[in-house]
């Protein structure tokens, strides 16, 4: 069930701005690898989604577009929390701190497999 839900969210993330589709597709591939070889292979070899999934699996690569989308979505989340919580700064501050750590991790991953061969990568 997790694989199907994450596949749906991943496909929606390709279309909807602010929804990180790649992350959901990676979770779906992981879930299907443990439950359904058929759906695992379908996602892994898919013409639209497969390359990103294979690049992550083989090289732990996150494409630049996915990095930008993820950081923008996290920034929008913090901005929305600031607007919703008004004078109460605690939830936005805690969320911003956690998302900053996640964003730093995402941004520091290689953007393509060739980056791994360069010195210092």
Automatic annotation (TrEMBL):
<dbReference type="InterPro" id="IPR007401">
    <property type="entry name" value="DUF454"/>
</dbReference>
<keyword id="KW-0472">Membrane</keyword>
<protein>
    <submittedName>
        <fullName>Inner membrane protein</fullName>
    </submittedName>
</protein>
<feature type="transmembrane region" description="Helical">
    <location>
        <begin position="64"/>
        <end position="83"/>
    </location>
</feature>
<feature type="transmembrane region" description="Helical">
    <location>
        <begin position="89"/>
        <end position="108"/>
    </location>
</feature>
<dbReference type="Pfam" id="PF04304">
    <property type="entry name" value="DUF454"/>
</dbReference>
<keyword id="KW-0812">Transmembrane</keyword>
<feature type="transmembrane region" description="Helical">
    <location>
        <begin position="12"/>
        <end position="32"/>
    </location>
</feature>
<keyword id="KW-1133">Transmembrane helix</keyword>
<dbReference type="GO" id="GO:0005886">
    <property type="term" value="C:plasma membrane"/>
</dbReference>
């Amino acid at each position: 069930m997790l694989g199907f839900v994450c596949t749906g969210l991943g496909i929606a993330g390709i279309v909807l701005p602010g929804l990180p589709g790649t992350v959901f597709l990676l979770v779906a591939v992981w879930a299907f690898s443990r439950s359904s070889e058929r759906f695992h292979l379908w996602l892994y070899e898919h013409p639209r989604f497969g390359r990103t999934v294979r690049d992550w699996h083989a090289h732990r690569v996150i494409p630049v577009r996915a990095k930008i989308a993820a950081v923008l979505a996290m920034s929008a989340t913090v901005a929305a929390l600031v607007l919703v919580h008004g004078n109460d700064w605690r939830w936005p501050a805690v969320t911003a701190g956690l998302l900053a750590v996640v964003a730093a991790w995402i941004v520091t991953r290689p953007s393509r497999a060739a980056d791994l061969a360069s010195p210092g990568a």
